[in-house]
């Protein structure tokens, strides 16, 4: 387990495994980890699947949570019990298939799996 000094800004996060992961991903990002591949969110201090529905996670420029055809944000539905994550445009009803949205779904699925494993540890 990481020391309090190593967790720095996450020392107040109650879930110690989450705090350690946040800190580790911060360091990895400084060495080149794509911020969109993180399983945690430094802004919300949560597993990314828990906060991905926030408006802060809509990035029009990259296309994350964005339907380019309809030019609008796309909601993300996370069912933690079933382990499912879905995205569909409220206008056209389709999954906004783009590299950015596929990346987001992968990160959310991995985040959910890691968070589940941490709970069962």
Explain this structure to me?
The protein is α+β, with helices and mostly antiparallel strands and 121 residues long. The chain has four helices and six strands. The chain has helices at 4-7, 16-30, 48-51, 99-119; strands spanning 40-41, 46-47, 66-67, 72-73, 76-79, 84-87. It has a two-stranded antiparallel ribbon with strand order 1-2. A two-stranded antiparallel ribbon has the order 3-4. It has a two-stranded antiparallel ribbon with strand order 5-6. Strand 1 (40-41) and strand 2 (46-47) form a beta hairpin. The longest helix is centred in the last third of the chain and has 21 residues, at 99-119. The model has no long low-confidence stretch (mean pLDDT 92).
| Largest β-sheet summary | 2 strands, antiparallel
pLDDT averaged over residues: 92
Given the C-alpha coordinates, what overall shape results? globular
Are there runs of 5+ residues with pLDDT below 50, and where? none
Instruction: Quickly count the helices.
Output: 4
Could you give the order of strands across the largest sheet?
Answer: 1-2
Instruction: Decide which structural class fits the backbone.
Output: alpha+beta
Distance between the termini: 13 Å
What's the number of domains? 1
Q: Tally the beta strands.
A: 6
Helix content: 25-40%
- Which series of helices and strands comes N to C? HHEEHEEEEH
Radius of gyration, in Å, reads: 15 Å
Q: Tell me the β content.
A: 5-15%
Domain SBP-type: 43-121
InterPro entries: SBP_dom
GO molecular function: DNA binding
Protein name: SBP-type domain-containing protein
């Amino acid at each position: 387990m990481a020391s309090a000094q190593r967790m720095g800004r996450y020392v107040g996060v109650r879930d110690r495994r989450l705090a350690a992961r946040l800190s580790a991903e911060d360091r990895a990002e400084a060495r080149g980890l794509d911020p969109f591949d993180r399983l945690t969110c430094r802004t919300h201090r949560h597993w990314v699947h828990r906060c991905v529905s926030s408006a802060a996670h809509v990035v029009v420029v990259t296309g994350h949570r964005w339907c380019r055809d309809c030019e609008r944000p796309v909601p993300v539905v996370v069912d933690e019990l079933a382990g499912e994550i879905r995205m569909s445009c409220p206008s056209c009803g389709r999954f906004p298939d783009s590299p950015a949205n596929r990346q987001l779904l992968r990160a959310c699925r991995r985040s959910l799996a890691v968070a589940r494993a941490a709970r069962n540890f």
